[in-house]
Amino acid sequence: MKFFITSIGTRGDVEPFLAIGEILSKRGHDVAYAFSEQFENIIPKKALFYSLTPEIMELINSREGRIVMGKASVFKKIKALLYLHQKGKIINKEIVIEHQKYVSNFNPDVIIHNPKCSYPVIWNLKTNKDNIIVSPVPYVMYPVKNHPHVGINRNLGHILNKLTYKLSNFGLVNTIYDAQKTLEHQPKCSMKTICKALFHRKLIFSITPQLFNRPDSWPKHVQILGYHERNTSMNWRPSPKIEKFLNNHAKILFLTFGSMFNSNPNEISNLFYDALIKLNIPCIINTASGGLLPLEKYRSEPKLLFVKQIPYEWIFKRVYAVVHHGGSGTTHMGLKYGLPSLIIPHIIDQYSWNKLVHKNKFGPKGISIKKLSKDNITPLIKDLYENETYKHAVNYASKTMNNTKLEDELYAFIVS
Q: Using an 8 Å Cβ cutoff, are 158 and 176 in contact?
């Protein structure tokens, strides 16, 4: 069979699809990928890759994106959100045209995509071929008891919670309805037809059951089928400085915001580094995309080590706990390697991962990047580092997760 795999968003939105593609490829299927052009370097060698416009990532990294993720007035945030929404609609139409072109070229039997991709649903209605939706985050499309849609950060009660899903789903259907107007010489489908097609397709949540249980109320074509990783070769070698730090310190903390950034990286960095020094905790700080900075005044601190990039699958085997932004991939990897986690959420689904980590006793409940202060960050890090309850709980879940292989179930669900 021929599978066209596509996703829109950050690397956390891409990795689960690469893992699924690897599973399909090794079982003899033809796979083509379509992601933003920034991710071409992580596509498997010799794999067919179609480059989507880089504008979506540029929008995420824009000044308005930083305002939404950082500290700013309500007026500035609303203004930034309106800008992102309007610009996002334009970019979505560009991606729809690109998807149509690439899908026509590859002629797949099945499209596997995240909910943010509009064209696969239109393609399904046109060809009657299968499209399978994959979401790396919970609380989308199908309601979960006592929890609103992933875009809302607090429980609003049963009625309002359900309403958040209905409103979001209406927006999703409306986006697809508008997107089809971009395509020339195509019969236009009604919103009712689109809704029916969207909610009768297979939906896979690429989440481990150790973090999130499948509600019994969901239909059978909606399943939780585990977190899957690609087999990446570990040719990476640490610098002598990293090796020396690991040899000189025990019970090391790892701090990273991954691809996230914020509007006040200098202030945020100072808060964390001062807390770590006060608590006398050795820490490796991954500055990555700039959400944390290697500030000069801390470079001589013997218990702080700054790195620009470091493979998580390498460093997670060598540290005690992790402080991170709460991306889906980082959250799952922390669980896989038995690391207590403190999540400092920046956007959308990261608040949900924060709640799930705390609910399962894998770490303290973190606080939003927007609300950090010297008074609240120090006790949170201290609790993460000293409360052994978290280590016991995460170690047990890690063993269960690593012993529960869902690859066969995932494959069978896709090809059935």
A: no
| CA distance linking residue 200 with residue 121, whole number of Å | 11
Burial letters for 157-166: b for 16+ Cβ neighbours within 10 Å, e otherwise?
eeeebbebbe
Domain definitions of the chain by residue range: 2-231+404-415, 240-403
The whole-angstrom separation of Cα 257 and Cα 66 is 14
Residue 141 predicted with pLDDT over 70: yes
pLDDT in tens, 159-181: 999 999 999 999 899 989 988 88
Query: Do 2-231+404-415 and 240-403 fold alike per CATH?
Result: yes
CA atoms within 13 A on the CB side of 74: 0
Residue whose structure tokens are 């690897």: 22
Say if residues 113 and 120 touch (Cβ distance below 8 Å). yes
pLDDT digits (tens, 9 = 90+) for 339-396: 999 999 988 899 999 999 999 999 999 999 989 999 999 999 999 999 999 999 999 9
DSSP letters along 117-150, please? --HHHHHHHHH--EEEEEESSSSSSS-BTTB--T
Q: In whole angstroms, give the CA distance from residue 363 to residue 361.
A: 5
The C-alpha atoms of residue 52 and residue 252 are separated, in whole angstroms, by 40
394/388 Cα distance (integer angstroms): 10
Residue with tokens 């010297």: 374
One-character DSSP codes across 178-208:
HHGGGSTT-PPPPHHHHHHHHTTS-EEE---
Helix (H, G, I), strand (E, B) or coil at 335: helix
Mean pLDDT of 397-416: 94
Which residue has 């400085």 as its token pair? Answer: 241
Q: Give how far Cα 181 sits from Cα of 169, 177, 218, 353, Å.
A: 19, 7, 32, 36
Write the CA distances from 235 to 11, 232, 314, integer angstroms. 21, 9, 10
The stretch 58-86 carries a mean pLDDT of: 63
Antiparallel, parallel or unpaired: β 30-36 and 48-52:
parallel
Give the separation between CA 228 and CA 209, rounded to whole angstroms: 12
User: Which class in CATH covers the domain with range 240-403?
Assistant: alpha beta
Check residue 78 and give its pLDDT.
66
Q: Which CATH number fits domain 2-231+404-415: 3.30.70.260, 3.60.15.10, 3.10.560.10, 3.40.50.2000?
A: 3.40.50.2000
Q: Is the pLDDT of residue 69 over 90?
A: no
pLDDT digits (tens, 9 = 90+) for 210-238: 999 999 999 999 999 999 988 765 678 89
